Each structure stands twice: as structure tokens, then as C-alpha cells.
């Protein structure tokens, strides 16, 4: 599968977000990127049988994948001038509730946007109950071209 360059997203349009939503892990899990505005990236997953853990509840990895995807793409969209990418150096998730059906929603925003690191938060909520399901935070190391 070819590399998806998020530089192709500028300007960020609903059509471009939909195209990216079908790429790789996003497509496999069913992560839909819905909008990017005010430096926030929004997404969702319609929960189905394929998302369940053996205990019958939503697999925690689905929640983390949604949050990590939103934060990572948000980071890529807001990289400082001269940066070529990023890599995750830390992530943490506090789980507060779960879901067995319906849609889960994530909203990611940058907490810190430095030259060498970015810190992002994402809140994941249940569409059925409106409850916060998880609070996610990650730190991204900003990558620059190597000088020879």
C-alpha cells in the first residue's frame, strides 16, 4: 500500500478526510475522519461485532486507535515549518466507560506545539450515552531532515 502524504490534505476538505479514512488501519477499523477546524480533528467509529473484545465489550485497542489516529493526523497537519514528520514517544489512556453498540466519537486538539515536540489530547465519547469513555494524551517528537 502506498504512503499517504498528509500534505495532500491541504486545504483540509471533507472529501480529502473521507479519502484518508479508507487508508490502512483507519479503513480496517472503520475510523471516519469527519472534520478539521479550529485546530481540532474530529472522527468516529460505528461499533460492531468486529470491535468487541473476548469479554463482549468494545476492545480498548479500538478506542486507542481512534484517539491515536486523530492526534497523529492532527500533529502532521500542524507540523512546524521545515519538519517532515513525527513519531510518537509516549501515549496514555484513562478508560472511564465502555460501549457495546452505537458510534464512538473522538475530538483531538494540540495542548503544546513546540519546535521539537507536540502534546495532544483526545476525548472519546459514546454517542448512545454521551458519556466520556476515555481521555487520551500523547507526545509526538517532531522530525526534521538529517543534515549531512
Features:
148 residues; alpha+beta; Thiol Ester Dehydrase, Chain A; six-stranded antiparallel beta sheet; 3 helices; 6 strands; 39% strand
Topology:
Blueprint: H1 14-21, H2 24-29, E1 31-37, E2 40-46, H3 60-77, E3 85-95, E4 103-113, E5 117-126, E6 132-143
Antiparallel strand pairs: 1-2, 2-4, 3-6, 4-5, 5-6
Characterization of the model:
By secondary structure, this protein is of the alpha+beta class. It has a single domain, classed as Thiol Ester Dehydrase, Chain A (Roll). 22% of the residues lie in helices and 39% in strands. It contains three helices and six strands. It has a six-stranded antiparallel beta sheet with strand order 1-2-4-5-6-3.
- The helix count comes to 3
Q: Percent helix among the residues? A: 10-25%
Number of discrete domains: 1
Strand order of the largest sheet: 1-2-4-5-6-3
- Assembly state: single chain
Could you provide a short overview of the structure?
The protein has 148 residues and is α+β, with helices and mostly antiparallel strands. It contains three helices and six strands; from the N terminus they run ααββαββββ. The radius of gyration is 15 Å and the shape is globular.
Amino acid at each position: 500500500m502506498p504512503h499517504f502524504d498528509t500534505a495532500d490534505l491541504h486545504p483540509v476538505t471533507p472529501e480529502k478526510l473521507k479519502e484518508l479514512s479508507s487508508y490502512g488501519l483507519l479503513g480496517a477499523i472503520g475510523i471516519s475522519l469527519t472534520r478539521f477546524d479550529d485546530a481540532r480533528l474530529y472522527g468516529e467509529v460505528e461499533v460492531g461485532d468486529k470491535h468487541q473484545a473476548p469479554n463482549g465489550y468494545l476492545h480498548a485497542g479500538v478506542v486507542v486507535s481512534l484517539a491515536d489516529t486523530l492526534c497523529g493526523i492532527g500533529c502532521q497537519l500542524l507540523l512546524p515549518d521545515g519538519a517532515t514528520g513525527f513519531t510518537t514517544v509516549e501515549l496514555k489512556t484513562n478508560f472511564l466507560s465502555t460501549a457495546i453498540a452505537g458510534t464512538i466519537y473522538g475530538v483531538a486538539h494540540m495542548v503544546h506545539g513546540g519546535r521539537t515536540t507536540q502534546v495532544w489530547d483526545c476525548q472519546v465519547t459514546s454517542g448512545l450515552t454521551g458519556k466520556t469513555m476515555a481521555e487520551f494524551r500523547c507526545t509526538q517528537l517532531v522530525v526534521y531532515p538529517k543534515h549531512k
